[in-house]
Write a structure and sequence with these properties.
Layout (H helix, E strand, L loop, with lengths): L10 H15 L9 H12 L4 H11 L3 H8 L13 E6 L2 H19 L12 E6 L11 E3 L2 E3 L4 H13 L14 H8 L18 H10 L36
Parallel strand pairs: 1-2
Antiparallel strand pairs: 1-3, 3-4
Helix pairs in contact: 1-2, 2-3, 2-7, 3-4, 5-6
């Protein structure tokens, strides 16, 4: 059976969102470029991108709902269904995985009683595995609403989600204090962060990343991890053969 058109927002909500959308759209020479922040805006209203939110974005940008839907389903930061106040993302990419990320994710699945993308019954926590949190210096890493919790263990991660569910303060290792997912979405839409001191907080990279940055900028190469490409490793085997020379068919 065909799906009925999405309902509109209540009049007062619609008026408030239109005022915010006007401010966002004014930042761009082409209004279509405002679609990504506007999707964050409606996600801040509803907690995920609803059919009503898709309709709103389409109408204010003079796009089709199909065009808006195509964008919203391409990016993983836009949720397609109801979820929790806190998105707990466990990095399961290579370095985090081998240092304990896989074990943390499996433990949290059992501890919370949810699978990947699932939300606890109290609506507090949505658990997701993340391909990379871009913080390999601090592996294994867990992120809550995109704030870093570094050097995690199974026990510390379980304690973290317990604190989130109980309403206790959970302080990120680096960066700004936590806020809810809806509040995070509004900040991602480009509106000021209202938390005192949040903008001044640092989420700096670790020593290994900064060493690589110094080398990339021509600094002292004292932190080489290994020999230059093609050179033999100290006390190691000789380098392998060079590139294979291809010949025309039939030639030796």
């Amino acid at each position: 059976m065909p799906q009925l058109p999405a309902p509109d927002y209540p009049a007062d909500v619609r008026a408030r969102l239109e005022a915010d959308a006007k401010e966002v759209i004014a930042r761009y020479p082409d209004s279509r470029s405002a679609l990504l922040p506007l999707l964050h805006l409606v996600q801040a209203e509803d907690g995920h991108v609803t059919r009503t939110g898709l309709r709103f974005c389409a109408e204010v940008l003079e796009l089709t709902v199909a065009e808006v839907t195509a964008v919203s389903t391409f990016y993983s930061m836009y949720r397609r269904g109801p979820s929790g106040d806190y998105q707990v993302g466990v990095c399961t990419n290579t370095l985090c995985a081998v240092l304990g990320g896989d074990a943390i994710f499996d433990a949290l699945r059992r501890h919370l009683g949810v699978d990947n993308g699932g939300t606890t019954d109290d609506g507090k926590v949505t658990l997701e595995h993340i391909e990379c949190n871009a913080a390999c210096d601090f592996a294994p890493v867990v992120m809550v609403n995109w704030e870093f919790f570094d050097n995690q263990t199974v026990e510390s991660a379980k304690a973290l989600v317990d604190d989130l569910r109980a309403g206790r303060t959970a302080r990120p290792t680096r960066g700004a204090p936590l806020c809810t997912y809806k509040e995070t979405a509004r900040i991602l839409a480009g509106f000021p962060d209202p938390r005192p001191g949040a903008v001044e907080e640092s989420g700096a990279a670790g020593p290994a990343t900064l060493a690589g940055l110094r080398l990339a900028k021509g600094g002292t190469p004292a932190a080489h991890v290994g020999p230059p490409r093609g050179a033999p490793a100290p006390d190691g085997p000789a380098p392998g053969p060079g590139p294979v020379e291809h010949t025309e068919e039939g030639e030796e």
